Each structure stands twice: as C-alpha cells, then as structure tokens.
Amino acid sequence: QVTLKESGPGMLQPSKTLSLTCSFSGFSLSTSGMVVSWIRQPSGKSLEWLAAIDWDGDKYYNPSLKSRLTVSKDTSNTQVFLKITSVDTADTATYYCARSNWFAYWGQGTLVTVSS
Amino acid sequence: DIQMTQSPASLSASLGETVTIECRASEDIYNGLAWYQQKPGKSPQLLIYNANSLHTGVPSRFSGSGSGTQYSLKINSLQSEDVASYFCQQYYDYPFTFGSGTKLEIK
Hints:
The complex is a heterodimer of chains A (about 120) and B (about 110). Chain A has about 120 residues and is mainly β.
C-alpha cells in the first residue's frame, strides 16, 4: 500500500526558508523509474508543479521558481525534502508530494501560511 | 513551458446528463495527459492517465480521449458524487503543467 505524508512548519514569516518533508511507504525511491514530485495549490486556485527527484538522484525544477528551490532525498530513499528560500505571501498554499509522472498517489497536503 | 488551456471554467449540469471538459496543450504532448478530480478539502484523485486509460477503481462513466494538442474528459450519466473540480495535467515534458480547472456543479 502506497502512502505519502507531507510535514511542514504551518506558518512562517516572509523572507524565511520553508522546509518541507515528504515521508512515504509502499515503494522505494531507489527503484528504477520512481519519481516523487512536489506540487502546491493556493486556496481556490489551480495546481502548480514545483520540483521532482527521481530514483537516480536527478532533479527537475519549475523554471519560474528554480532559483529558490532545492529538492533532495534521504539515503534510505523513504523521504524527500523541499526547501524554498525567501518566501513571501504568494507562497501561501497547500503543499503536496505525489508519486510521478501521472500522480496516482498523493499525500494529504500540508498548509503553509506565510505571514508576518 | 507547455501551457494547458482548460475549458470551461465552470459547468452546471443535471443528474444523468453527459458533460465534457476540454484541455488544449500549446504543443503536441503525445498523449502524456492525466485528469484529476478534486473535492473540497481533499487531495486530487487520478481519473485518467495516458489520455485515455482509466485508473484502477474509477467508475467507467469517466472516459478520456484526444491526441496531439486536444484532449477531453467525458462524464456519462452524471451523479451527485461527481460534484468537484477537475484538472488536466501534461507530463510529456518538464516542467509538468496543469490546466486552470473546471468546477462542476449539479443544476
């Protein structure tokens, strides 16, 4: 059974760095072809793909945010991380991790609010 | 980036009706397209992948079609539980991109 779960700070101040963790089970990111993506959704709006990391450690970023994003994984291949630097109110959203490339498996999402 | 133009933005239909949602890609995405259903407060759920393959457990009243740059999601015999927002997504090329969404309501 594949499950994913996001965790984050809930709220943070503008200009800080947002750190998110995706913990998953039911598959290993070391398996050939596996990819985990980060996606976000501001309230009432559409979805925005942010970044992905694959089984080989290759990383992919949304060019519109690339300079602020860093995706990584742990050595046990059961967690994926996302850092977003210099956040502002426009980064307020629910953040999801999902198994790519079509997203059959999603986490429940974690709401991040950027506010002073 | 590949732009996904989704229409309509909202849709109101009666129970039992058939509805169609369209997505147009800014370039050929070679059937690298998925459709998702999202209910309020929930994560999106996969309906269709590879443009026309029904995901496991999804009712057969949902179907996908299209090729090249034009794709559609059809819902036959609309049920009350189909009230949701629907999104298309291309995964042919990075960065993956989503349509703007269609909000489906019952008349």
